[in-house]
């Protein structure tokens, strides 16, 4: 529900060493580990036993935490690269780590890798090797230092994109000269829901019950209104550290639901940044013991669903006279409504009901400042005569590579017939 108006330069984050960062474990520290197993007394339960190491300064640190916080930079040039890719469902993120001999600045410096596609639903067991191509690099907020997260896409050993690799097709569209010349900007509003681990019920909700009706939760504060703010804030800071172009965050209408905005980003970068941000959110919720879901309608009934509204503009839309260009783009979008809906996320029909700030999935509409339309145009855009449009149809589990490239293709590369264009223009004029 945020408005994103203009792109900013990539943040360059510098890591400052905190005094709380654990130092490398020395032999003396390891030697201070005491296991008094011969002492008489009640046997300790293994589930309650904690292994501690005592530092000579007189305080104790958790051994595992000390190792996790080790700063490798003074001791080796080697770094850890976490290769991340999209799994067989098209929405799950997978990853594995490898050691790289020195810090890198560009994906081209990284080697290709492979994984067992039969274990992710992406290849048969008798020919299971899938090849990862590094495409985008982000700083690793979990390991720190020079360590990196690497967004990859997947190919057969013969170099063909596998079916779940939607990035390759998007990259082709964004390399088209017509698209490049129009410098497409995207601002993506990612909504998500936090669930309690054991019961898979929204965070903060009474188990098997419901909170009070919607109203006080959107952008609310207080223990009875905001559930999961620490996760949202940790994710916000981790994304900034990583170099993701995150521009804001807020609590959403349904309690236990949050949103963050990524962008404006240009072209293929929008998809890379959304997938990296999703991976970081999965890792943070993993550490917090909370389940993340991108289901577009996690709770049936009188509750808002979860979307991934996509703000979009081209160079021509942002210049004087751009409002007419926006109207032409909307006309094209109306003619390909079915194609867009089929690519905008699984289960989206449960969300796009015409209620809860959505348009019906079966009809296309647009309006100024109307959140019940398929396409919303802001008041400021109408006033200035230029700006951007917001596609409110994508679900929270949409693939950003598909949505962003499809918007560019439909509005910049695809041309309707004159008859279809005239008919669509007549229908749209009746909807406004």
UniProtKB/TrEMBL annotation:
Keyword tRNA processing on entry: no
Region ranges (Disordered): 99-122
Domain GS beta-grasp: 79-159
Reactions it catalyzes: L-glutamate + NH4(+) + ATP = L-glutamine + ADP + phosphate + H(+)
GO cellular component, one term: chloroplast
Organism whose genome encodes this protein: Malus baccata
All copies of domain GS catalytic, residue ranges: 163-432
One Pfam family, short name: Gln-synt_N
Enzyme Commission (EC) number: 6.3.1.2
Primary location: plastid
One annotated GO biological process: glutamine biosynthetic process
GO molecular function: ATP binding; glutamine synthetase activity
Compartments where found: Plastid, Chloroplast
Keywords, comma-separated and alphabetical: ATP-binding, Chloroplast, Ligase, Nucleotide-binding, Plastid, Transit peptide
Entry keyword annotation includes Electron transport: no
InterPro entries, alphabetized: Gln_synt_N, Gln_synt_N_sf, Gln_synth/guanido_kin_cat_dom, Gln_synth_cat_dom, Gln_synth_gly_rich_site, Gln_synth_N_conserv_site, Glutamine_Synthetase
The protein's name in its UniProt record: Glutamine synthetase
Stated family: Belongs to the glutamine synthetase family.
Oligomeric form and interacting partners: Homooctamer.
